[in-house]
């Protein structure tokens, strides 16, 4: 650390280029960078404090960042901080705000008039309830049906605004007038978070199981912003976290037998774990087995019970 | 600590009596205690770990708790934990959830049908916008006007439910069908928090400036629950925090001169702090001066400029 | 939730049996349970709040807990809370305290006399510096050398206590007299944490790479306490987290080619990832390749470059 | 917010001047700024997001910051972040690290050699145990005694280093060799925190009751760094927090009677609160009464029982 006199005020050219730029999300939302602190290099600097060494070559820096991320050494990633300005429907914001390790200043509809914009769903965007996944959607409605849903929504959102305006005109307190605003109403906020916690947010919200709306924000933040801000950490995040595959202890056991060509033992193990229960002579739905089969597919393998 | 062998599983008789009981709040909300850990005595035990001493007499315990709270020794209060089950309109929940140091499991309208209940405002409960306070209300509308507002609200909430039901009937994904639910829709949650952070929550949300709706919840939690759970800490909280008075360095300076009978110096100091600016020959509105005047009133004094 | 009226005050028989019992760790440390809130069933209850359903059969409860843990649904695990009383050398405490999401009351050497006990290393416990791992140890010294190290340590710790006592006898302030206490000095604390964060702590500190001393505490907490407190969650934690295997996106790619029997492509991919760099005709040390080889071994496979 | 397009990358000239500069603390410690994000203006920007307005005049900005701090609107202050590099004795670091809402990367004595420097106390710096305050010090030893204490400390610290070196020379693992390092050993860390939490840290650690060593760091951070970084917030912090005076509900009651000239009622109230208990005909020590007397003194008043 003796010789470590370089300061971390290096700015990232490619991020500076988009500073303040609004990346549109959904029909009227956006994300933009207000300010940031630190870069890939700050992660390295922080790690080197722990290791008591000065900075080295760029290639070693890349290796170090990748090592840290792969081995879940999280504190160096906390040394980078970013502040975003977001405009997002209250419905998605309700999910967003559940991430507690961030700083937030949200637009106040107690103090000010509610933003006069609600997220509208166009005729091609209405999603059907998933049958397999109780908390998911699957496929879109044809535009004939979608068109009617959009029309009704428009009618409803107009009524909502009318009611809100009526109350304000009468002199109802803003804090009470807002009580029936639809969750589709846009809100805005400054949201500040460190890179480690942002990556946690992205891992959850860029995931295929995340709801489309918040996933759209997460994807924009990841692909447009983090990729420019800390490109090495971003690449490592994709390699070691987003696109990694976790095998449970059961999966390791079954796979080992399977790769050894021991079919009977493989089936016995799967049986033991309750994966092969049958209903009416057919394999019953079993989440763990299905997840395992998907992993096998990714590895180019097929389960012996298939 | 040598002799400290007593365990903290003492249960509080008066809290156990209300365990699970629903305390109604607003028109269809409630708060109830699901579980708790620790009592006034646990605060004492934790403090004595720091001080390395065994338990003493009950009177000393009371003095110790009061000393800790008065001097903002916060960690012993973190040793008590409570889990509540609450039913609250989403609008109030949006404020509630801003307290980040709590554990939360909220009812999911992505997985399940939205609760079929919205907070309704009766004809006598409509509040007027405060003129002085941009984020407050002041006084109620006469029931003739209130009645019309309530009627319109009913009409609107019915429409909201109709739209929601239409979508579900068509097979729209629950996660999308909910997007226009009004903020008045009730949600439920398990909310777990330690006593220190709960007192912070109560200090903010029982305050006269807090919005009526969340204040109603906070008041119920404080008066009905914390008062039974940790009565000594609760009393100390009221004496040293809720009902205390903070004088700024300016207020101390002005008050000292005032109590010394030095009228000119008092006025000069107030002038220096910008409290006595005049507009059209009359004192202009000045928040700091007004706050000071209110404190003087509480002490039975009157400002010399009045 | 309508019918969910059962409260969570069910106590865990097997945990209640050990309540207050000191589990010894190291030469003079311990861990004991002071209090706890919640059980396996509370995890289920919390999850069912989200899903809006009443409790079901025990077998389904087990499945639900396992599902939640496997899919990193963390909030239901936050609904269980435990309070431990620990005695631990300051050196290990320095690592312990880095876990920020816990409540702590530590014994104060500012207020009280330092605990008159230091962790002593016996003649068979001195560990050699690992050659491969800069922050690890590997193997033990023979007792002849160990004996001398222990003797010198004893001499040193006696001197440390002498100095401390001298200062106190002279009337030096306790807060200053303690300034040269060795890190081996024992401290005590109440440590309160929720199950989710405790499992994070255990995942890190029970890991083979954790330092022996803190690993001893973590192992005791896991095997003796959590296993009794929330046995179903504990089993799931071992199956899905402690004993799981994570494959990076690179490892998946190489393994897929390998399992398809495409040797050349396998080597080309490994080459591309920099795993096969040679120095003097031999494979150079490469962490990622070595980690992958270990995973292959666990699956009964051998890398083609071996 | 529509017109709010100005970004927050304004740098603070007076802080930039000292960027990287080491402010010495104690005999061999220091604090220096590595990086920062935000300025006074960022606090204003964040508040204006809530209020939905663009930036205004500088004088209004100052008023707004002061208003926010006075009324404990804390979230806008969380929008400023600073990263410090500190060198501090482990003893003080043990207190420092108890502030959980910060990001930390500490020098690792598991990975690297311990820093070869221990805090030394010179002959004029040895403090006597306070008689009134169990966790405080009071006055200094004469240099004749101090000189001997310093000599013994030197002897001890030399022995400590000798033992440490012996172990390393023998090949003892670094993670174990360090186990007896004295708490006076210096450590280093990167410490990153937002302004709101930093002010909380300063309020506690700049306080007269904080231990001298950590108070020295806090004072340097406050007076040298925060004063340059966010001068308006810093001034408000001093006016409304550091130098404010809090009156408990009891003190308000007694003072009101006292200012009304009702001596008997004043004494009766003080009596009721247990402030006037006598032992051997003299007022017994009573913390609350003494604290009140000190506040009266600051206001130029004298208690009627004196």
Brief account:
With 306 residues, chain A is of the alpha+beta class. The first copy, chain A, is built from twelve helices and ten strands.
Protein described:
The structure is a homotetramer. Chain A has about 300 residues and is α+β, with helices and mostly antiparallel strands. Chain A contains 12 helices and 10 strands. Chain A has a 5-stranded antiparallel beta sheet. Residues about 1-5 of chain A have low confidence and may be disordered. The interface of B and D includes residues 256, 287, 288 and 300 of B. β8 (about 245) of chain A pairs antiparallel with β8 (about 245) of chain C.
Write the layout of secondary structure elements.
The structure is a homotetramer of 306-residue chains.
Chain A: H1 13-16, E1 23-25, E2 29-37, H2 40-51, H3 58-70, E3 81-89, H4 90-96, E4 103-106, E5 127-129, E6 137-140, H5 143-170, H6 174-177, E7 186-194, H7 195-205, H8 212-229, H9 231-242, E8 245-247, H10 249-259, H11 263-272, E9 278-279, E10 282-283, H12 287-298
Antiparallel strand pairs in A: 1-2, 2-3, 3-7, 4-7, 5-6, 9-10
Helix pairs in contact in A: 2-3, 3-9, 7-8, 8-9, 10-11
CATH class designation of the largest domain in chain A: Alpha Beta
Distance between the termini of chain A: 58 Å
Low-pLDDT windows of residues of chain A = 1-5
In the CATH hierarchy, what is the architecture of the largest domain in chain A at level 2? 2-Layer Sandwich
Task: Give the topology string of chain A: H per helix, E per strand.
Answer: HEEHHEHEEEHHEHHHEHHEEH
Identify the biggest protein-protein contact and residues per side: A-B, 52 and 52 residues
Would you report the number of β strands of chain A? Answer: 10
> Treating each run of at least 4 consecutive H or I residues as one helix, how many helices of chain A?
12
Rg over C-alpha atoms of chain A, rounded to the nearest angstrom: 25 Å
Main sheet attributes: strand count, strand direction, barrel closure of chain A: 5 strands, antiparallel
Mean pLDDT of chain A: 93
Output the structural class of chain A.
alpha+beta
Biggest sheet: strand arrangement of chain A: 1-2-3-7-4
How many domains make up the 3D coordinates of chain A?
Answer: 3
Oligomer type: homotetramer
Helical proportion of chain A, percent range: 40-55%
């Amino acid at each position: 650390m003796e010789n470590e006199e370089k300061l971390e005020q290096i700015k990232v050219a490619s991020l500076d280029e988009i500073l303040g730029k609004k990346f549109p999300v959904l029909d009227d939302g956006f994300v933009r960078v207000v300010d940031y602190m630190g870069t890939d290099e700050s992660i390295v600097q922080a790690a080197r404090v722990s290791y008591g060494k000065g900075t080295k070559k760029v290639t070693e820096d890349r290796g170090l960042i990748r090592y840290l991320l792969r081995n879940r050494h999280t504190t160096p990633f906390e040394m980078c901080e970013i502040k975003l300005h977001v405009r997002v429907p209250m419905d998605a914001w309700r999910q967003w705000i559940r991430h507690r390790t961030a700083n937030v200043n949200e637009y106040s509809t107690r103090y000010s008039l509610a933003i006069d914009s609600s997220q509208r769903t166009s005729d091609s965007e209405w999603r059907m309830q998933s049958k397999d996944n109780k908390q998911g959607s699957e496929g879109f409605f044809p535009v004939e049906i979608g068109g009617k849903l959009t029309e009704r929504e428009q009618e409803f959102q107009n009524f909502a605004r009318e009611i809100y305006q009526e109350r304000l005109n009468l002199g109802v307190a803003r804090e009470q007038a807002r009580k029936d605003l639809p969750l589709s109403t846009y809100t805005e906020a400054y949201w500040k978070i460190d890179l480690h916690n942002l990556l946690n947010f992205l891992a959850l919200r860029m995931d295929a199981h995340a709801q489309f709306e918040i996933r759209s924000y997460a994807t924009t933040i990841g692909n447009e912003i983090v990729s420019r801000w800390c490109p090495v950490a971003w690449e490592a995040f994709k390699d070691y976290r987003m696109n990694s595959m976790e095998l449970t202890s059961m999966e390791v056991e079954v796979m080992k037998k399977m790769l050894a060509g021991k079919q009977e033992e493989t089936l016995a193990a799967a049986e033991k774990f309750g994966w092969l229960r049958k209903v009416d002579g057919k394999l019953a739905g079993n989440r763990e087995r299905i997840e395992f089969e998907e992993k096998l597919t990714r590895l180019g393998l097929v389960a012996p019970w298939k």
